[in-house]
Amino acid sequence: MEPTNESSGHGGMSEEGVPRDGTAFALHAFCNEAGVAFAALIDESGAVISSSSPQGLAPRNLPEIGAIAAGAFGATALLSRKLGEGGDDGLYQPGKRWHYFLVPVTDDAFLLSVFDGDTPVGLVRVGAGRARSAMAASLASSRERPIWP
User: What CATH number should be reported for the domain whose range is 2-142?
Assistant: First the structure.
C-alpha cells in the first residue's frame, strides 16, 4: 500500500476532515477506532462503494483490489454455505506485513479491512461488527432515495 489521502464517499468532507456520507463516516470511524489502515465497502461485483484510509495508506489500484476481494469473499461465502456454516463471521487472512478481514454488510456488499500485525484481530472484528450495522442502515436509506430529483 502506498501513502495517499484517501476517503471516498458521496457526501464530501467536513472542515475537520470527517466524511459527511453515512457509509464513509462509518468507515472513517471504524478505521480510527480499530486501528485499521484501510477499509472499503465493496459490492458483490467488486465495485468500491466507499473507502477510507485515515493513516494515508490506500492501494493505488483500488478497482483491482475490489475485484479480487469480491472474488475471495464470494468463494468463501459459497464454501461456508456448502459446509453448512452461516458465513457471517467473515474471513481473516494474516500476512507478513498486512492482514485483512472480510465480513458481510448486506446481502450484496461486504467490508474489507486491512491492518498491520500490531492491530489485534479481535479489535477489528468488534469494530467491524459495529460499523456493519451503521453501513447497512446507510445503504438501505440511500437505496430508498430517488436517483433523479
Answer: 3.30.450.30
